[in-house]
Structures are given as structure tokens and as C-alpha cells.
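Q: What would this chain look like folded?
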Amino acid sequence: MSANPTETTATLVAINAQQARLSGRLDRLTGKALIQQGRSLIAKAGTQWQVDLADVSHSSSVGIALLVDWQRYSQNKNITLELLNVPSKMKDVIEFSGLTAFLKLN
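A: My prediction, written as C-alpha cells:
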């Protein structure tokens, strides 16, 4: 069995001060670093921050916890967080968990 490094990595890349792209696998191995990276970007965003999740290949419950953390952090900083292109499996878990309104998903 060969190990593919992209299977265990996730990246958060700033597009500009108000936008970022999250990609890869969201799990216990990547979540802690992503929380801090996201908070750092949020703190520099001004009044709004968007994160595009179109390239998220997998998300455990850690991925949902990550989004909840970012939302709470954004609210504490009076910054509006907008989640774009949330994968359907993540949306299903968010809806099941009763977090749709909190995460402001349509």
C-alpha cells in the first residue's frame, strides 16, 4: 500500500485579505493547525472573511468543529464569515447537527 501525501494534508491559502481557499483532508491530523491558520487570517480580514471549501476532499467531524471554531472566533471579532462551496457531505452533517443557521448556510 503506497502512501499519498495529499491524503493526509490540508491547506488553507489566502487569496486576499478577505478570501481564502481550504483544500484537502480535514481530520484530527490537520485540524489543530488549520484552526490557528484560520484565526490568523480572520483577524486580518477587516469586516468579512470568505472561505471556499470546494477543494475539500474529505471531512471528519473535525472539519465541522473547525468551521464552528472559525464562526465563533469571527463573531468575537465582529467579522462576518461566509462559507462557500461547502461539500454536500459536510452540509448533511451540519444540517443533522442543527448548525445550519449558526454557520449561516443556505
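The longest helix spans residues 61-76.
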